[in-house]
Structures are given as C-alpha cells and as structure tokens.
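Lab notebook, bench 4. The sequencing result for the construct came back, and we need a structural model before the next group meeting so we can plan mutations. Quick request posted to the team channel:

Model the 3D structure of this chain.
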Amino acid sequence: MRSKWWPLAAITLGNFMLLVDVTIVNTALPEIARGLDASFTSLQWVMDIYALALAALLMAAGSAADLFGRRRLYVAGLAVFALSSLACGLAADAGVLIAARAVQGVGAAAMFATNTPLLMAAYAGRDRAVAFGVWGGTSGAAAAMGPVLGGLLTEYTDWRWIFLVNLPLTVFAIWITVRTVAESRGAPGSRVDWPGAVLFTLCAGALTYGLIRGGEEGWSDPAARAALLGSAVALVAFVLAERRTRQPLLDLRLMRRPSFAVLMAASLLLQAAAFPYLTYTGIWFQSVLGLSPVQAGLAILPLGVTAMLVGALGGRLLGRVAPGRAVGCGLLLVGAGVLMNVLLLDSGADWAALAPGLALTGTGIGCSMPVLVQAALGSAPPERAGMASGAVNTFKQLGYALGIAVLGTVFASRVRDVVRDKAPGDHTGEAAEAISGGHAQSVLHAAEPGPARRALESVVRDAFAAGLDRICLYAGLTALAAGVLVLAVVRGGPQPPRPAARPPAGGQSPRQVKVADAPAGSS
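Done. Here's the predicted structure in token form:
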C-alpha cells in the first residue's frame, strides 16, 4: 500500500459514513415505525440523539485527539461507530435503537473531530488542496446520496441494513488507517476541558429533552419544565467554568465579537431551517402519498444535488465574495426556498410540489455552507482558528438536533389540532399521534371501507399538509431573519486562505484550520 492517497481514502470513507448516517435514516423512518411499533416521539429521538451526541462531544473529541493521538482516536471512533451500528441493526425495540444511535454519535464525534488534523498532517502544498477538495466533495455527496441510499437499502433489503452496511466499511477504514496513516498529536501541555464538555452536553441534552417532552405532554408537564430549567442552570455553569479554565472548550471571549457570535447563530439556524423539516416530509411521501422508500429518496434529491453543484461549480465565484455576504445571501435563498413550499403545498399536492422549493433551498445551502468556516475564521484571531472551525461544526449539529425537536413539536401539534377539528372523537389524540409517526395507513385500514374511509383519507391529507405548511413557515422565516442579521452585522471582504496557525502558549492547537465544510444535515 504505497500510494500517497491511501490516508485520504481512509479519512474520507469515515467522513462519508458519519455524514450519510445523518440523512440515510430519513427514508427508513416509516419502516422503522412499523417494524418497531415506534411512536412519533421515538422517531424524533432516533434522528435527534445522533446529532445531539455529535454536537455535544465534537469539541471535546478534538481536544482528546490532540492529547492522546489523532489516529488512535479516529480508529477508536470507527470501532465505536461499527459496534453501535451493529446494535442499531439488531435493535428489538425503539429504546434500544435510540440508545445505540447515541453511542453511534459518540463514535462519529471522534471520527469527525480528527478528520481535518489527520489530513493536515498527511499532506502539504498542492496535495493538501487536492485532499481537502476530495474530502469536501464526499461531504456533499453524502448529503445528496443519503436519502437515496436509505431508500434502496430499505426497499430491497430491510431498514436494518442502513446500519449494518457500515460494518464492512468501518473494518476496511480501520485497516487502511492502521497501515497508512501516521500518528500525530497537538502541542505539549494540551488537555481536555472535561467539566466544560460535561456541562455543554447536559445543557444541550436537557434542552432537547425538554422541547420534545413539552411537545408531547404539554408545557405544564413537570418533567419538561425541570429539563428546561436544568438546561438553563447547566448553561450558566458552563459559562462560569469556561471563564475560569486556562484551556476552555470554547473561549467565550470570541462571543464578544459581534461577527463571530452572529455566525455561530447563523450556523445553528441555517442547519435548523434547511434540513429537519425533511424528516417529516419523508414520512409524508411514504405514509400519505404512498411512495416507495426509493421514490421518497429521489423526491428529496433536488436539494442535495443543487447544493453539491452550486458548492462545487460556484467555488471560484464564491471566493471573490465576502464570506459573510455569501452566508447571508445563502440564508435568504434557503428561506425563500422553504417558504415556497408553503405556497405550493396543500392537501391535494404530490411530491412534485416540493421540487422547486427544494432546488432553491439547495442553491442557498451551496452558497452558504462551504464558506461558513471561512467566515468564522475571518472573525476570530489566528490563534483561535481551530476552535472557531470546531465551534461552527458544533453549532451546526446542535441546530439540526434542536430543529428536529422544535419543528417536530410544532408539526405534531398542528396535525393534532386538524384531526380534532375534522374528526372529533374519543380516540382523536391516538389517531393524530399515529398519523404523525408514519402509521397513517394503519389508521386508514382500521376504518370501514367506503365513505368513512374516504373521509378519513381527506383528514389525513389535510392534517399532514397543515403540519408541513406550519413547520415550513417557521423554518423559512427563521432562515430569512438569520440572513438579514448576517448581512447587517458581518462585514469584511474576501478572506485570503490562512496558513496553519501555531499553537499558542496555552497549548490549544489548531485542530480544524482548513475545513471544506459539509452540507447536509450533517456536519
């Protein structure tokens, strides 16, 4: 194995797998719901817990890699990812699947945090530019191919294979990594901010749980209130801990820079607006419109393909534009695309009604995602370049997790209201939850054939259209507001490429100086 590109193959393969596993589940959700008799809330957690674990541990994993060895942590992450994928594939109920997805997110955090520094160590000069171009391209391909791959595996094998397929790929990636990738570490004296990592995880986890629990049981529910209060307490403790440590997980002084703070908010809101609603769109495609898993994956393809093409073909043009302007305009396009769904979607619509909005949203993603890290680097001092890029990816994953929770709550509430209005009865709540969770066909089959079933079919279509309309409205307005904020606050011209920053005296090493940012609901 003498080729100089084997390290690139090992790292991009791991990157592709961890990003595909964000979106590959979308087209399998109705089958998972049927196979495990999973509720709507369980489906939310299947999607959410992976991104949540990835977001919560990403920056801590970067610090651990600097301390213990980047190749070692990457291989460990691959092993954890493989074992948890096996557990996902063998899950007997929704609880086991959710727990395994959480562990899978832990492995993904170790893999993703080490991608960039391993590439930086393996390549230099023109080879480094080629390596990062390929690595970024696989990120875009993962976004575009995830739903289609999920549809193919679900339709022609079984939904469990969307996880089991990771096993041979991770074994191959580990083998290549051990044989071809050299070990590297951060500056001497590096350490992991464990208190910060624990508090950040508690804050994000409690917030997500509180949002989902409140949507399911009502905002007066004691558990939901306790979780939201606990999240606020953990946030305050995190801020205090980060101010006192010499090597913080996140240097909060960066947040005093308006441009940097707004770009972190934009990273979170872009991810929350552009991708989570596709989870509920995929359920609509299959459980209401009757599309197959493959057809559902292909129906979402306009977003992934346009994002990949715009990011790739428009790279040179975007390089001449101020990064903040590219991010802001991209957010405006995302908002316009998602709001287009509001105009075109009604109870009689089919999958084609979403294609124009998906394509416009993908155009906005292609404009904004590739330059988010570059914009953040331009807003942070050079010695904090690694922390800035890591923070962008953390806020993106957190945005996806919170978007699933918030939009899922809004969607389920709207579906429940429509069902109660148009089909009042003693079991309305159970029927609404079943419809939201991908069991619409089971609800219809339980009705008597004839006028009663046709009336119920109309209610199902009306409820789903109303739910999707509401979450697209909220997501679109969120993206528009974020775009206006970025354009108003983030200034400066095009940023020249930065050389790798030297570690400062505190031992904080630049873990992710040059990042070809991944589109898709991923990283």
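Confidence is low (pLDDT under 50) at residues 497-523.
Will bring this to the meeting.
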